[in-house]
Design goal:
The protein is built from 17 helices and no strands. With 340 residues, it is mainly α.
């Protein structure tokens, strides 16, 4: 009797019919650390995408800073909207290059799960005060491998974790999908940070050097269109994700301009020192008062013999901006005394 294929198996066969020979095929994944029964509907990378999307760490990104601390206005990016924009750009490129969209999206949605409150200011603070240092891309891996689901982790496929681990500039993803996300992270934050900086009157569009805008475009839409087309045109039918030299150079110079004009701008980043001191103060407090940590963190120290600084770092890194401020007020600022 002929074996009837389930929906997942049909989708996996369809990948081989449609996708580029350089794509990461779902049925050729290196698998998970803990073997599981495959889903009868969803291929492995789609299942991972869904796990990330439903995780608590993903939901908390909506209240974590992207660039501007506590901006007054509803239209500034957060870490969540940044993640969604990376995902959208990466999926556009992956689809055009006939790569695996599910894997691309899973990596994009998971790449910043380990980011701290207050953006890179928070990352600097934890890196400075934690004895083993702190890097958000490695914390993202810790989140999906260990911290989510009360210590069980999400048990994601190796290719997804590889892409998350290597999304930094110096990273070397093992899949083309990971390489797409690595580039799209920069494309997204450079361009949406320009948009937010203009909205916040930190810079004006006509102040951006013309040697960059003449090549890339004079608006958010034009620049994204230029960069996406350049990657697709130069990477099509190749076993690599590349850009043309002039476009790539212009993008790097535009990034340098953003560091000089926005990322180091006192008006845009004026509260970062306070944010860093806040997290350092919380870290020092919890190190001295471990009993104030949530029960699941105390259990990890007892049952898994994790050092206190590692557990405290995990707790603070997982906080949203407003939760960190709330905890600081609760622990450090006297409340009004009442006899009632």
């Amino acid at each position: 009797m002929e074996h009837k294929l389930n929906i997942r198996q049909k989708l996996e066969l369809r990948e081989h019919e449609i996708l580029s020979p350089y794509a990461a095929f779902s049925d050729q994944s290196l698998g998970r650390d803990v073997e599981e029964e495959p889903c009868d509907i969803r291929p492995i990378y789609q299942r991972d995408r869904d796990r990330i999307l439903h995780s608590k760490s993903f939901r908390r990104l909506k209240h974590k800073t992207q660039v501007f601390l506590a901006p007054e206005g509803d239209h500034y990016r957060t870490r969540l909207t940044h993640t969604l924009e990376v995902s959208q750009i990466a999926r556009t490129i992956a689809k055009a290059l006939l790569l695996n969209e599910d894997l691309t999206e899973a990596i994009a949605l998971g790449h910043d799960l380990g980011h701290t409150p207050f953006g890179h200011a928070g990352e600097r603070a934890l890196n400075r005060i934690c004895p083993i240092g702190f890097e958000h891309h490695m914390q993202s891996i810790r989140v999906v491998e260990f911290l989510e689901k009360h210590g069980k982790g999400l048990n994601l496929a190796k290719e997804v974790r590889d892409g998350i681990r290597n999304h930094q500039t110096e990273g070397k993803p093992s899949t083309l999908e990971g390489k797409v996300v690595r580039l799209c992270d920069k494309i997204a934050y450079i361009n949406h940070d320009i948009d937010d900086a203009i909205r916040g009157q930190i810079i004006m569009e006509d102040e951006i050097p013309k040697e960059y805008t003449d090549i890339l475009g004079r608006s958010l839409g034009e620049r994204l269109n230029t960069l996406i087309h350049d990657i697709v045109n130069n990477s099509e039918k190749r076993n690599d994700i590349i850009m043309s030299p002039d476009i790539e150079a212009a993008m790097h110079h535009l990034r340098e301009y953003m560091f000089e004009s926005v990322y180091m701008n006192k008006k845009a980043k004026g509260q970062e020192e306070q944010a860093e001191r806040l997290l350092e103060t919380l870290f020092e407090y919890y190190e001295k008062h471990l009993e104030r940590l949530p029960e699941e963190y105390l259990l990890r120290m007892k049952q898994m013999n994790e050092p206190s600084y590692r557990v405290v770092c995990d707790y603070i890194a997982g906080m949203t901006d407003r939760y960190a401020v709330s905890k600081f007020k609760e622990l450090m600022i006297p409340s009004a005394w009442s006899v009632y």
